[in-house]
Amino acid sequence: MLAAACDLFTTRGINTTGVDLIAAAAGVSKRSLYQRYASKDDLIAAYLPVATDKFLDLVLPPAEACASPADAILEVFAASQRAAAEPGFRGCPVLNASAEICDPAHPVRAAAVAYKDQLHAYFATYAEAAGAENPALLAEQLVMLFDGAMTHTTVRGVPFPDSVHTTARMLIGAQGVRVLDRQVVAAR
To answer: What is the pLDDT of residues 30-40, one digit of tens each?
Structure first.
């Protein structure tokens, strides 16, 4: 049921996907679905952590894969650019869910905030390891750059812009971190 909901919420959107469709796609009755999830909101709340974990696995590199802490930050943007170039890419699941569900009391908000906190923590950890003057500020700026690039790509239906790499490098450099002259970009 959750796998069917994940697929449908990702490809069709949350608000346009009804419980009847999810039950049919999962091959279960609507009653069975409601026995497992008391409401569609509960199903949405279960979906978002699964979708965000999958998304983070796609864009956050393992520590050993990067030559330096700055490279670990830059690789997030390169991995995001590669992911965005794949057919069927739908963008960041948190941004998509947050755009569809505006109620700040909805259970999806807690999952969305937890995801953004996780991304912020990743950037802050590597910013500190790189010697940034203000790792928390740099992490906040990088999350906003990430969100802006994801939104740009998703809304416009265009490739992830190369200018994101330049901007990330400038933000890192402004924090007193030396960034190598080479630019981490997606394979084309």
So the answer is: 999 999 999 99
**Of the candidates 120, 114, 80, 119, which has an alpha carbon nearest to the alpha carbon of residue 98?**
114
Q: What confidence score (pLDDT) does residue 2 get?
A: 94
Output the pTM of the full model. Answer: 0.87
Amino acid, single-letter form, for residue 80 = S
| C-alpha separations of 147 from 38, 101, 140 in Å | 32, 17, 11
Handedness of CA 64, 67, 73, 79 (dihedral sign): negative
**Calpha distance 48→50 (Å, rounded):** 5
pLDDT (tens digit per residue) in 160-172: 889 999 999 999 9
Chain centre to alpha carbon of residue 94:
6
Flag whether pLDDT at 181 surpasses 70. no
Q: Which of 99, 118, 117 is nearest to 108 (CA)?
A: 99
The tens digit of pLDDT for each residue in 134-151 reads 999 999 999 999 999 999
